[in-house]
């Protein structure tokens, strides 16, 4: 049912936690499934230098969040805005159609974190 990559990220999630001095924080969730995600980003000179997450949800949600943080490291703000649920699912080696909402939640978390980052930049 799940790819080896999904199982690996679920069983050994990377970058779990939060960043106290985060430059952007995004929250996303699916009230129907109950999955919730909070994404923390550290951004220096328009490049993502750290990404951490806290996710409550199924194996696919945790795997999508974990893989997302790895994908984001070293990306520019502009590159991060290009990620979508298909990119996340593809990086995971695919997700069952009934679990695509998990990759969509992760993509929504990035968009929310980027919006928060941009809002914080206005005051600087």
Tell me the layout of helices and strands.
Elements: H1 4-11, E1 24-30, E2 35-44, E3 47-56, H2 59-72, H3 77-80, H4 85-91, H5 100-122
Antiparallel strand pairs: 1-2, 2-3
Helix pairs in contact: 1-2, 2-5, 4-5
Provide an overview of this structure.
- The protein is α+β, with helices and mostly antiparallel strands.
- It has one domain (4-122): Sufe protein. Chain: A.
- Helix content is 45%, strand content 22%.
- It is built from 5 helices and 3 strands.
- It has helices spanning 4-11, 59-72, 77-80, 85-91, 100-122, and strands spanning 24-30, 35-44, 47-56.
- The chain has a 3-stranded antiparallel sheet.
- A hairpin with a 2-residue loop joins strand 2 (35-44) and strand 3 (47-56).
- Helix 1 (4-11) crosses helix 2.
- The radius of gyration is 13 Å and the shape is globular.
Short description:
The protein has 124 residues and is of the alpha+beta class. Helices cover 45% and strands 22% of the residues.
**How many separate domains make up the residues?**
1
Q: Can you identify the CATH class?
A: Alpha Beta
Shape: globular
Q: Strands of the biggest beta sheet: in what spatial order? A: 1-2-3
Task: Identify the CATH architecture.
Answer: Alpha-Beta Complex
- Number of DSSP strands? 3
Task: State the end-to-end distance.
Answer: 47 Å
Largest sheet: 3 strands, antiparallel
What would you report as the Rg, rounded to the nearest angstrom?
A: 13 Å
Strand residues, percent: 15-25%
CATH topology: Sufe protein. Chain: A
| Tally of individual helices | 5
Order of helices and strands: HEEEHHHH
